[in-house]
Amino acid sequence: MESMPNCPICQSEHTYQDGSLYICPECAHEWDPNAAVTHDDTLIVKDSNGNLLSDGDDIILIKDLKLKGSSTVLKKGEKAKAIRLVDGDHEIDCKMDGMKVMLKACFVKKA
């Protein structure tokens, strides 16, 4: 019988296989044993269409968004230039209409 590899994140030995992926029940990490292993901490963010975003890209809103704590509404089709990707709840920092805005990538598409 094939032995299961330890989790690459927490080194747990209690991993299991689900289809082609290995899953760690302790830290919830999933990985493909056949994929190329990368140890860099690059942030991978995809827009609503699945295109990879990177720092400096231009984006367009795909729906109207009301800003929290404000009566301002960002309209569908508004463009932001030179975005910055960040790690956290919101993946994108940018400026729209002169205001600093934090957006989730699922509400934008690459321009």
UniProtKB/TrEMBL annotation:
Specify the taxonomic lineage: Bacteria, Pseudomonadati, Pseudomonadota, Gammaproteobacteria, Orbales
Chain ranges of the Protein YjdM C-terminal domain: 45-111
The Swiss-Prot or TrEMBL record describes its family as follows: Belongs to the YjdM family.
What InterPro entries does this protein's entry cite?
YjdM, YjdM_C, YjdM_N
- Protein YjdM N-terminal domain residues are 3-32
- Could you tell me what this protein is called? Alkylphosphonate utilization operon protein PhnA
- Give a Pfam family name: Zn_Ribbon_YjdM
Superkingdom assignment:
Bacteria
